[in-house]
Amino acid sequence: MRSRLARPVLALVLVTSVLAPVAIAGPAAAAEDLTVSHEGDRVTVASGPSQAVRGTAAAPVGTEVLVRVRSTGNTSPAFLKTRTGVVRDDGSWAVAFNFSDIDPGGTFELTARFENGSAEATVDGEIVACEGDCADSLPADTPTPIPEQTPTPTATADEEAPVAFGENIFVVNAGSVAALPIEFSGDADAAVVVVGNETDANYELETVVRDEDGDGQAVLYVDTALAGRGGETVSVSGGDTVSVRSETSLSAMLDPAAYDVTLYAGSEGSGAAEDVGTLVVQAQSSETPADADGDAATTATDRPDSDGTGLGSLPTGVLVSGAFVVGGAALAAVLLRG
Question: What total number of domains does the chain contain?
Answer without folding.
Answer: 2
